[in-house]
Amino acid sequence: MMQSTYTINDVKRVIDAVGDVAANTTVSILVTDSRRIINPAASLFFALNNRRDGHQFIVDAYAAGIRNFVVSHQPDTIMPDANFLVVDNVLAALQALSAHHRNQFNIPVIGITGSNGKTIVKEWLYQLMCPENNIVRNPKSYNSQIGVPISVWQMNDTHTLGIFEAGISVPDEMEKLETIVQPTIGILTHIGTAHDEGFEGREQKIDEKLKLFKNCKQIIYNYDQLKDHAEELKSHECFTWSRKFNLADLYVFSETTISGKYYLRAVYNQKEIECLIPFRDGASVENAIVCWATMLAMGYSAADADDRIERLTAVSMRLELKTGINDCSVIDDSYNSDIQSLEIALNFLDQQNQHHKKTLILSDIYQSGLEEEALYKQVAQMIKDKQVERFIGVGAALQANKAYFDLPEIHFYDDTAALIKDLGKLHLHQETILIKGSRSFEFEKVSRALVQKAHETVMEINLNTLLSNLNYYKARLNPGVKLMAMVKAFSYGSGSFEVANILQYNKVDYLAVAYTDEGIELRESGISLPIMVLNPEPLAYDKLIYNKLEPVIYSFNLLDEFVKFAQENDIAEYPVHIKIDSGMHRVGFEDFEVEALCDLLAVNNYMRVQSVYSHLAASDAEQHDLFTLKQIGIFEKACAQIEDTLGYYVIKHVSNTSGIVRWPNAQYDMVRLGIGLYGVDAAVSPDDTSLRPIATLKTTVSQVKKVLASETIGYNRNGSLKTDGQIATVRIGYADGYRRAFGNGVGKMLVNGVLVPTVGNVSMDMCMLDVSAAEVKEGDEVIVFNDQLRIEELAQQIGTIPYEILTNVSERVKRVYFYE
Ligand SMILES: *Cc1c(COP(=O)(O)O)cnc(C)c1O
């Protein structure tokens, strides 16, 4: 058995389902998202009750060819030859099926849990142990109640070791994951404060996590962290490590830095052993020690462990979307290649609309557990289904199976060097290119050749966080309320089509931009959602209409101009939006103008009023709540008058980000989500970690200098150190959006984890930091803002608001989008 295959009757028995089985087919693929279907005939669809009810997507999945479903109720639509297995709880059925599958194998399985470092430890153990093992592990960080069963389902006869991570966010989840993973060896990584909100306290969180290890033969953990849990762990064989206590099995007593590497000495079995780690940051060192302890616990020699750990490579689970040469977009996933992560990457490629042409550069895939022919047949089918137009394969195995690749354009190369030599001849131009390769192919070289050079200041946008922020607000909407995402001003500095593609894929209802040109840019990047334009310029009405953008009409003048244009161009019933000024006094019809407006609308069939809205001046501020109520009153009256005149229903909306949470009764038919999407909301406490900033602005150190207290630093000799010390010059200045007001100690940045102040005036392209208190060398990364050093804090330092900090980051700063 190479791939897990079960007959539908077996599945029915395992998950204890009812319902008629029309045809006893076999299934081998578990599907939970109807947008991600590869081989429908072999797929079993689980209609999970996730954010949205999976039963809504059964018709789509059926249309895509799936015939086997696990559901909590039979759908109303008649679907011939489909099997519906009806259960009480679809998620529990998925978990039960996976647990049953796990039971078929008797191999060592490592289970990893903890608050931080699970994925890194899992990937590093994979690197360390793959020479003698065929390892099955979670793709990326698929460690949830859904991710774990999907991961474990990959186990097959060829595997000799399983490594699975398990993550939980609320009590009671771990027991379920334990029955699926059934680890024989348990590893607890760092316990931090992350994800504390679902638990009563740290102790409850630890107790909960330890449930994964219930049946483990051996548990590996940091003694310093679990001193107080000795009682619970007593019945297990334990392997402990410590930096404080010499009674641990692995006692790390000395830590120093040697030429950029981290050198550890420890006592193990009464002997002194050593280990060199190719990373220096605290988290990596801790994760490497966990791996070190695990290797020793599993019987590797100290020499082997040292030798392999020294060669660990950085783990990146990220897909990075970057601006490529020749007007291309590049999705960089050059770290690893397996069939699940290829599927994830292809799916991300599929979400991109900015270019018609989609290209995949793929290396041979190792250790899939499938026979080569079967593997590449499956790969070729996936690629075809995702409508990749141009395929570039690198490696002997892909070459040998080239016959399966039936695509408009295919190229094959022996190795990466041959591809790079030929890149010019491929004329890559205006296309989205996915680069996906196994580590040994060194596809980072391909990526370097195809990505636009950036000076080393970049703004990274976390698309997962963008999505989780979106869902944070969706979860707070009353039933049926639509969502308009504000993507004006380059999505508050975060990007145009890159952000819009994700929003479109995740089905927001509307987008809004400030100007016609911003809307046109989105249309040219393939965005088909309705787009409202807040400030339509009458001179650009032709472009606006040609691009199917919907203008806001906020004055009699705009209305007249629009009518004139419509008359001249034979336009009728064009969708527009009416803006009411309920007290903000910026733009919009005031309440005394609404009657005159209605008179004009009554005799006007050039346009169709899509929505009526108003904007709140202080939705986040309690001291203005009475004023907000007054605004709401004025708005409601205007809406009633307009709807009465028109005789048809219009969408009504008033809430911006802070209004969504603070004024649930004013959500009406739609809300306009702006800065909250980007992770900032004055109405949400910064301790609520379910809303997080999506942007990280970072730069690098260009030079480090020793400076005496008697010397001065920068323009106008404004800066100096209190005592002799050192400064670091970094590659960001006011031309990048780091305002001059941050100079002379007002602003602070994070250098190797230490918060350090600016010193002297900020220059155009650089500024200086007082790093007397930090360890730093040229080339080190410096954080200007991220989820620790927050935009809100920067705004406060210079007396502005987060909106301005975000939108100030200049276009010169390259944006990199990642998805993990
Ligand atoms: C920018 C804008 C919003 C979004 O405001 P946030 O505070 O960022 O949520 C909503 N409505 C209008 C009219 C806007 O101009």
From TrEMBL:
Its EC number is 5.1.1.1. Pathway: Amino-acid biosynthesis; D-alanine biosynthesis; D-alanine from L-alanine: step 1/1. Substrate binds at residues 586, 764. InterPro entries: Ala_racemase, Ala_racemase/Decarboxylase_C, Ala_racemase_C, Ala_racemase_N, Mur-like_cat_sf, Mur_ligase_C, Mur_ligase_C_dom_sf, Mur_ligase_cen. Residues 694-818 form the Alanine racemase C-terminal domain. The active site is at residues 488, 715. One of its GO terms (molecular function) is ATP binding. Keywords: ATP-binding, Isomerase, Ligase, Nucleotide-binding, Pyridoxal phosphate. GO terms for biological process: D-alanine biosynthetic process. Its cofactor is pyridoxal 5'-phosphate. The modification N6-(pyridoxal phosphate)lysine is found at residue 488. It catalyses: L-alanine = D-alanine. It comes from the Bacteria. Belongs to the alanine racemase family. PANTHER family: UDP-N-ACETYLMURAMOYL-TRIPEPTIDE--D-ALANYL-D-ALANINE LIGASE. Catalyzes the interconversion of L-alanine and D-alanine. May also act on other amino acids. This is Alanine racemase. It comes from Mucilaginibacter glaciei. The lineage of its organism: Bacteria, Pseudomonadati, Bacteroidota, Sphingobacteriia, Sphingobacteriales.
